[in-house]
Every structure is written in structure tokens, then in C-alpha cells.
Design a protein that fits this description.
One of its GO terms (molecular function) is carbohydrate:proton symporter activity. This protein is mainly alpha-helical. The chain is 73% helix and 0% strand. α3 runs antiparallel to α4.
């Protein structure tokens, strides 16, 4: 409700109703994303494009809030427009930065530390969620519309970092991920596979020392 009160839904009932619709839109969008797009779009492409689009939406929202600030009383058209932008944001989030980081995190860790890596990823995610929920109301009071510009800048910066730093993992096997993240060279992996195949061809059991992940 705090977010919707910030954009002009000053009445508690209307803010709660808008928040309820927000939750419903997020739920439906997430189900659709998990069912139809997670394994079709690239992980990095989805995260980078989604985060960049979120940044653009936040810039637009901040600009509207600056030029048409709410003054209490009846809900203004500008407030409805900002509400629509927030709903569009959560749809984009549900197809991008909602599910994809969890998929990406489950793929990038070597098997020997995957449980530990997922544990820290989950803990850090919820710690950031908690911090955001505590800091955002303070930012609305201190910065007003500039809060959305801050969020926009962070999202656009994150999109750039994601696009240029994170390697794509879609469609790669665990062996290929080893090579992608430098756990083993492509030549060594090919040599190991050749040894195994040669051992099967000779009818013997050949133990190849595990390397990489």
C-alpha cells in the first residue's frame, strides 16, 4: 500500500485494493512465465532486457510523479496512469528478474558447492528484499519522486552489467557449463571423453579422475 499511497491512492481502502490487484497480476504473470517462457528465452537476455525495461518504466513513473504530483482528494488520471505502469512493471518482472535469477543460480555453481551456493543466493535475495521493504518508505519521505529515478538508475545499471558480464547458460549441459566457467578446458574435457569412449570400445573399465565441477 505504501507505493500506491505515494502515487496518489491516499485512501487506505483504494491503496489496499490496488495492492491486491498487483498481487493477482504478479501471480498470473509468474505462472505464465514458468509455463511458457523460462526455457525459451535466454537467461541473460531475459534478465538484462527485463531489468532495462523496468528501469525505463521507473523513469516514466518518476517523471509523471514530478510533473503531476498527487494533492489528495479524488484519484487523478495521473495516478491511474502510474498505477498502470506499476502493473506493467510487475508483468515484466515476473517474466524476467522474478524467476530467471533462480534458474541461473541453479545452473552456475559446480556440483560440489551447489547446495552452499544456492543457500547463500537465497539468503542474500531475502536479505535484499527485507532491506528494500524497510528503506523504500524512508526514501519516499526523503526523496519523493526522485526515489523512482534512483530505482530506474539501479535497474539500467544492472541491465548493463548483466548483459556484458553474465555468460548465457541456456541449453548448455553440465559438461559445457564446466568449460564456460573455466572449471576445465575444452581440450581436457574432450580428452576425458575420448578416454571413456576408448575404454568402452576396448571392453574395459577405465576410471577417469573427475575434473572440473
Amino acid at each position: 500500500p505504501t507505493v500506491f499511497k505515494n502515487i496518489g491512492f491516499s485512501d487506505t481502502r483504494s491503496a489496499l485494493l490496488a495492492s491486491g490487484v498487483f498481487g493477482a497480476v504478479k501471480f498470473v504473470s509468474t505462472i505464465l512465465a514458468l509455463a511458457f517462457t523460462v526455457n525459451r528465452w535466454g537467461r541473460v537476455t531475459g534478465m538484462a532486457v527485463g531489468t532495462g525495461f523496468q528501469g525505463i518504466l521507473f523513469f516514466i513513473l518518476g517523471a509523471i510523479l514530478k510533473s503531476k504530483p498527487p494533492h489528495g482528494g479524488p484519484i487523478q488520471p495521473a495516478s491511474i496512469a502510474m498505477m498502470a505502469i506499476i502493473y506493467l512493471y510487475v508483468i515484466v518482472y515476473s517474466f524476467g528478474m522474478g524467476p530467471l535469477p533462480w534458474v541461473y543460480s541453479s545452473e552456475i555453481y559446480p556440483l560440489r558447492i551447489r547446495e552452499l551456493g544456492q543457500m547463500w543466493f537465497t539468503a542474500l535475495t531475502w536479505a535484499c528484499n527485507f532491506a528494500t521493504s524497510r528503506v523504500t518508505p524512508i526514501l519516499f519521505v526523503k526523496l519523493g519522486w526522485k526515489t523512482w529515478m534512483l530505482f530506474a538508475s539501479l535497474n539500467l545499471g544492472g541491465a548493463i552489467l548483466c548483459w556484458f558480464i553474465c555468460p548465457e547458460t541456456k541449453g548448455l549441459s553440465m559438461e559445457e557449463l564446466d568449460i564456460l566457467f573455466g572449471a576445465i578446458s575444452a581440450e581436457q574435457r574432450a580428452a576425458d571423453i575420448e578416454k571413456v569412449l576408448q575404454g568402452h570400445a576396448d571392453g574395459s573399465r577405465l576410471n577417469v579422475p573427475p575434473e572440473g565441477r
